[in-house]
What does this fold into?
Amino acid sequence: MRKIALVPHELNITTGEETITVEPSGQIARVAVTQEVVGELDGIPVVRNVYGEVTGLPEPEKDTIYIVSGLVLSRVKGRSDVFAPDSGNTAIRNERGQIVAVTRLVGCDE
It folds into this structure.
């Protein structure tokens, strides 16, 4: 299975027996975001994000999965080839709390 990372950094996926490193592909999948001012709090503007379309996600390809950010994954529906790293409590972190590897992937909602 070919794994293509559509994020700007390498991903380490630990299976328990081995660590698979997926290098960035050079292409990044993103979600368009605009902001709307919704108010003010003690003179500080408050905005809300309005999420739009996903860009940079290739069409499905046989025996290929795409690894994207959690935000991109949340906007993709009905694709069995799109995943995000699971950065929850099973992720492996260094002493600063930064993720150094994940142990599983999150799949796309149908």
Summary: The mean pLDDT is 95. The helical segments are 70-75. Residues 36 and 47 are 5 Å apart (CA to CA).
